[in-house]
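Follow-up to my post from last week.
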Amino acid sequence: ETGVTQSPTHLIKTRGQQVTLRCSSQSGHNTVSWYQQALGQGPQFIFQYYREEENGRGNFPPRFSGLQFPNYSSELNVNALELDDSALYLCASTTGQLNTEAFFGQGTRLTVV
Amino acid sequence: DQQVKQNSPSLSVQEGRISILNCDYTNSMFDYFLWYKKYPAEGPTFLISISSIKDKNEDGRFTVFLNKSAKHLSLHIVPSQPGDSAVYFCAASASSGTYKYIFGTGTRLKVLA
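User reply:
Got it. Predicted complex:
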């Protein structure tokens, strides 16, 4: 059973650029959520995908967008990067069943300069 | 509006003693609660969870207590070990809507040998 994997692990981008982060969900999991964790804070929910459809969104602007593919892997895209987008981006997958724990990847550390 | 609060940013405990980490929440719709542990440069690792129909859940050295009337939960680690030193996040979710988690800001636990 493979766990949640994210790529890349680190990334440096320039303000105004676009970035794509990738996540492979745990085997058997059809629901993927993305979180942003700023320094000294807890993870903040960005959005969730269930069976390739967005299934809920947190308080993030439209320049944060995502995709889920038929194999349940997912991408997070961020356009027009801002300095405040510098954070750890975490992907989590679940079975989609009620009251089950999510398993997190190791995260992608994005630095915007 | 911080719906999940961990008011102690840090905690130091002697090896072998009990560690008690606290978490408060404000949203009465939350009905599932989790604790995650996070080491530097890793994603959060699931520790233990509790549904609102219970007031206690135990797994080895880890026990979570839920006091619904006080909107308070706590994680007890007995006995504490140096390898338990990490940041601990409390998270909550509501079964209505998406299965997003609302995280606290974390408590850094240091277990002293």
